[in-house]
């Protein structure tokens, strides 16, 4: 029986686990834009959808984010950043994702675990499996599906010039961009969840993306 059908048929207090969809990709790849479109499309199809930004999607997460930015200026070690991002994610999961009274069918995380691998553990693949194990054990929420937004360096530069961020985190030259992209490519091959790669979707492919997501929800 499908997960969604379970929800609609059963109005008891028992909450079935939500489907966890994560949006990943380098800065400016279009994650947030696409996440909002997916949320709107699924809401239109009568699903209850929560959209959460990692790391800033919870009050304590925003405090941790400010600390991360401060430490970044002090050239903190990537592993220090790694623990802080995990801490922010823990707040996001327990306070926002699992909190609240309303039933949730789908949680969309705008960035999640793969970002930590790509940005903090870029050159340290020996830690990747460990990170996944930590996630599996400390959180009941692991991704069921990942949408990876692709972007090339030229488009990245054009978009970043058009929209300079006040709290820009990663000073991204081409070398860093390639390293993060490489880490993402490797991380997305880990046996964690299915990955859908997208690149500047047209209306037609957006509709088929939503169909694919909906069919995943029902299995
Ligand atoms: N498919 C697209 N085609 C063209 N521009 C896009 C597309 N998706 C997003 N953008 C633009 O690129 C910039 C970054 O998008 P955003 O969704 O904020 O990316 P991210 O969340 O990955 O940083 C924004 O200015 C947005 O309007
Ligand atoms: C979740 C996460 C984000 N980050 C970085 C990636 C982004 O540069 C920054 C989030 O900043 P943000 O401005 O929200 O970027 P975006 O809109 O692209 O998500 O934090 C990590 O380095 N590790 C992580 O685990």
Automatic annotation (TrEMBL):
It is an enzyme of class 2 (transferase). Phosphorylation of dTMP to form dTDP in both de novo and salvage pathways of dTTP synthesis. The lineage of its organism: Bacteria, Pseudomonadati, Bacteroidota, Cytophagia, Cytophagales. One of its GO terms (cellular component) is cytosol. One of its GO terms (molecular function) is dTMP kinase activity. Pfam families: Thymidylate_kin. Belongs to the thymidylate kinase family. The keyword Kinase applies. Keywords: ATP-binding, Kinase, Nucleotide biosynthesis, Nucleotide-binding, Transferase. InterPro entries: P-loop_NTPase, Thymidylate_kin-like_dom, Thymidylate_kinase. Its EC number is 2.7.4.9. Residues 24-188 form the Thymidylate kinase-like domain. This is Thymidylate kinase. GO terms for biological process: dTDP biosynthetic process; dTTP biosynthetic process; dUDP biosynthetic process. It catalyses: dTMP + ATP = dTDP + ADP. Gene3D superfamilies: P-loop containing nucleotide triphosphate hydrolases.
């Amino acid at each position: 029986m499908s997960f969604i059908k379970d929800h609609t048929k059963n109005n008891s207090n028992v909450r079935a686990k939500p489907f966890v969809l994560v949006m990943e990709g380098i800065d400016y790849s279009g994650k947030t834009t696409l996440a909002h479109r997916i949320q709107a499309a699924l809401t239109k199809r009568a699903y209850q959808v929560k959209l959460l930004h990692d790391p800033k999607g919870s009050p304590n997460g925003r405090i941790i984010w400010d600390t991360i930015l401060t430490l970044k200026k002090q050239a903190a070690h990537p592993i220090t950043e790694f623990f802080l991002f995990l801490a922010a994610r823990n707040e996001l999961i327990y306070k926002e994702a699992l909190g609240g009274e309303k039933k949730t069918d789908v949680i969309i995380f705008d960035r999640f675990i793969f970002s930590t691998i790509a940005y903090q553990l870029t050159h340290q693949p020996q830690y990747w499996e460990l990170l996944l194990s930590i996630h599996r054990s400390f959180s009941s929420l692991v991704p069921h599906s990942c949408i990876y937004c692709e972007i090339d360096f030229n488009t990245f530069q054009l978009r970043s010039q058009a929209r300079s961020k006040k709290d820009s985190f990663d000073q991204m030259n081409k070398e860093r961009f390639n390293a993060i992209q490489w880490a993402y490519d490797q991380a997305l091959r880990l046996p964690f969840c299915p990955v859908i790669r997208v690149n500047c979707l047209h209306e037609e492919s957006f509709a088929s993306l939503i169909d694919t997501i909906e069919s995943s929800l029902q299995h």
